Amino acid sequence: MLAIIAAGELLALVALGYVLLRVQTAGHNNAASRRLESGEKAYKKWVSGFATGLGDRPAVVILEPDALAELSSCANKAERHARLLMLSQAVKTLQTKNDQVYLDAGHSRWVPAGQMASRLRAADVAQAYGFSLNVANFDATSREIRYATELDRHLGMAKRFVVDTSRNGHASPGGRVNLAAGSIARALPGAGRGALASRLFIDPNSEAALWVQAHRGNPQARQIRHRIANQPTAKWFGAWSGDIAAAVSGYTDAASRVHKVPILVTYAIPHLGCGGNSTAGAKQWCNPPGRQLGSVPQVLDDRGDMGLWIKAPGESDGDCGAGAGTRVGEFSPVIARELITGRS
Question: Taking each helix axis from N to C terminus, what angle separates 113-122 and 141-155, rounded to the nearest 10 degrees?
Fold first, then answer.
């Protein structure tokens, strides 16, 4: 009789534990669901503000570097779906007849082309102007052009693309940045020509330009001004930008006054790494030594595919590598000198 009672009590305890676990799991799922919903609403509002800031002024917009490539870090299906939905809505909101929106596709050594093409398709790249590659990375332009060709084949459509050439010169992994004649189908005669490339905005208040202004007597100032500050580079916008509509409006208005087209980067997708380790592979991407400037912003072929400086040369990735002691985004003359010379 006692054994029967003990067994009954045990079954009751097990059942109670199961109920408590279900309640706890449901609570966790509800909290995660609320977090996702809150993030989606906040991002939708942020993108709307960004669009308001653009107004009807023309701009090149690089949409959320790493967001699609980092999708693998989102183990939860709901998180992956939410991110794709946010990117899709951003494309539909920002791509207008005046703007060129490029949905970021990572780089050639990150996600296989077939898999990235599926992600691009799910994020409505068909409605975007194109996709961006190699943002803040060091792969050779020729390698990225081949990857772009693979992406087009898997997508089943020809989309225009941009490659970040700010730090992928000949000292970087992957070989030369110069395009070998006849070796790449997308590199056609007339490379480097094009109306838009000559109309890109050079920010007089970029971090490099401000450093030059503050260090006119420094022996490096003239070279940094000529090689870096006098080239069009992208302006990044995110949580640090404050009133996003006002920030974007102020920047695009400054470009419009001199009849130039600005390059802007949206970098505000919620939980970019999905809780993954952002320091993984830091030696490969975080201010590594021995890198060099790539080709200046220019058109790569007669389709209008461009090489752009999306990561501003000389601006640090953080307190690491050649940027030891610096903050993310801080201009470093040490990093700038290394990029100019290709030597540590």
Answer: 60
pTM comes to 0.86
Decide if 64 is inside a domain: yes
CATH number at residue 298: 3.20.20.40
Cα 183 to chain centroid, rounded: 28
- CA 200 to chain CA centroid, Å, is 19
Spatial distance between the Cα atoms of 324 and 199, rounded to a whole number of angstroms:
35
Q: Which residue range is the domain that position 100 belongs to?
A: 37-202+232-313
What is residue 343's predicted lDDT score, i.e. its pLDDT?
85
> What are the pLDDT digits (tens) for 165-203?
999 997 565 444 444 333 334 443 344 445 587 899 999
In a domain, 257, yes or no: yes
Assess if residue 29 is contained within a domain. Answer: no
In the chain, the DSSP E strands lie at 59-63, 99-104, 130-133, 160-164, 235-237, 263-266, 298-299, 306-308
3-state secondary structure of 70: helix
In the chain the first and final C-alpha atoms are separated, in Å, by 82
User: How many domains in the chain?
Assistant: 1
185 belongs to a structural domain = yes
Rounded CA-CA distance 166/307 in Å is 9
